[in-house]
Amino acid sequence: MPQSTRVAIIGAALSANKGAAAMVESVMTRLPDQLGPCHFDILTTYPEADAPRVPAGTDAAIVGLQPLRLALVEFPIACLALVMRTVRLPLFWVRSRGCRSMLDAAVVVDVAGISFSDGRGFAIVVYNALMTGVPLLLGVPTVKAAQALGPFQSFPNKWLAPLVLRKVRTVCARGVSTREHLDSLGGVNAIDVADLAFSLDEAGSFPDAVNAALETIHKDFIVVMPSAVVRGIYESTGGNYVAAMTSLVADIRAKTGRSVVIAAHSYRAGLPEGRMNDGPVCREVFAACSGDPQVLGLDFDLTAGELRHLVALSSVLVTSRFHAMISGLATSTPTVVVGWSHKYKEVLDDFGLASLGLDSSALDTPNEVADIVVGVLATRDAISQQISAALPAVKDRSLRNFSVIAEAVTK
After folding, report:
1. Which of 41, 106, 233, 323 has its CB surrounded by the most CB atoms within 10 Å?
2. pLDDT, tens digit, for every residue of 342-360?
3. Rounded to 10 degrees, what is the CA torsion of 20, 22, 28, 33?
4. Cα–Cα distance, 229 to 276 (Å, whole number)
């Protein structure tokens, strides 16, 4: 039996944000096609929640790498390892679980999704630098798989981004805007790809409880996926996100006559709302719509593949989560996006659908967003065909991620 290639995956988890889970699962599913048998170490901030979510039959281990541990344990050890490597001394003494996992790997794959982007806050940029910086300090080949990056104008992004990104073996740019931002830095080895999650397999079924819930509404439904992140952005300017989303759902119901399913694409059971947990805001929106029996709140912790199956069954998807949008496009489902970053439109551009990428400020007039949904529904077949025509080329670019990772192993 051939020996397994060890691969460390950083920047995402199998629980909480199901977009991140989709990227991790795509790497574990597709990379063995390039490298043969692989063992994966998933370095995650949620080790307890992730452990039961490792896909059956996958040779993978969960390694806890919480932010404080990264900053206070792994990063200092990696800095010392750099000094030792510089004077050509061995690193057998490294025993911390994060650094050891990376040192034992043939390649470290960073699947952060978006990183080193202005506007995300000081702490997140520093976290991005520490996460990608540790394997670089250890001297392990590191690939940033498909993600959005830039712009790089704010402090400390403008000096941390070039410091880190110029050392990465290959940075996989997820769209035109990202590539332009990377080119502005100079010295970054970048390649154009599509998102990893375009390679994710759709689940074939739902848990029984989800099937039972869906039987209570009409089959021609529209899926709406609110976002805690967009809520924070919208309310920072004085808006009421829950009220706006409630109005949007009501307007969609009134103007289309279709049922509406409200579901979370990032979900952490029993925990408060946060960047990785849309469950509470989804429950708030559903509670405000609960008088309408054709509005269904799916309060379940679904897998990335199950969420993709839900999207595939819908007539139209309205979402603020990036990887929910990817599931819409991957299943040729007409998708309206209410987002906050260039990362949405640069993917919609690949399908000629940039006009369906709206800024969060569009929620100031929910009735106009509902009108867009009505227009999309009226031309649903044509939009689906347009997506289907562009999809093969996009999936080919998604697979390019895995060949880039394999090349980093063989160099």
Report:
1. 323
2. 778 888 989 999 999 999 9
3. -130
4. 8
| Mean pLDDT score of the chain | 94
Q: Please tell me the CATH code under which domain 208-391 is placed.
A: 3.40.50.2000
Predicted local distance difference test score (pLDDT) of residue 344: 84
Residue 327 has which token pair?
A: 């599931």
What integer pLDDT is reported at residue 1 of this predicted model?
Answer: 58
pLDDT of 16: 78
Give the C-alpha separation, 303 to 252, whole Å: 27
Non-local (6+) Cβ contacts of 297 within 8 A are 261, 262, 263, 282, 283, 285, 286, 287, 289, 290
Partners of residue 338 on adjacent β-strands:
358
Integer Cα distance of 84 and 62 in angstroms:
28
Alpha-carbon span 205 to 306, nearest angstrom: 7
SS3 151: coil
**5-193 and 208-391, same CATH topology:** yes
What dihedral do alpha carbons 290, 17, 30, 385 form, nearest 10°?
Answer: 40
Q: What is the CATH number of domain 5-193?
A: 3.40.50.11930
For 213-243, the pLDDT digits (tens) are 999 999 999 999 999 999 999 999 999 999 9
Task: Please report, to the nearest 10 degrees, the dihedral formed by the alpha carbons of residues 35, 41, 44, 50 taken in order.
Answer: 100
Enumerate the β-bridge partners of residue 39. Answer: 6
Q: How far, in Å, CA of 221 to CA of 206, rounded?
A: 16
Assign 275 a pLDDT band (cuts: 50, 70, 90): confident
220's tokens: 């021609």
Q: Does the CA dihedral 125-176-11-338 come out positive or negative?
A: positive
Helix axes of 241-256 and 228-235: crossing angle, nearest 10 degrees: 110
Q: Which tens digit of pLDDT belongs to each residue from 143-166?
A: 999 999 999 999 999 999 999 999
Give the domain ranges of the chain: 5-193, 208-391
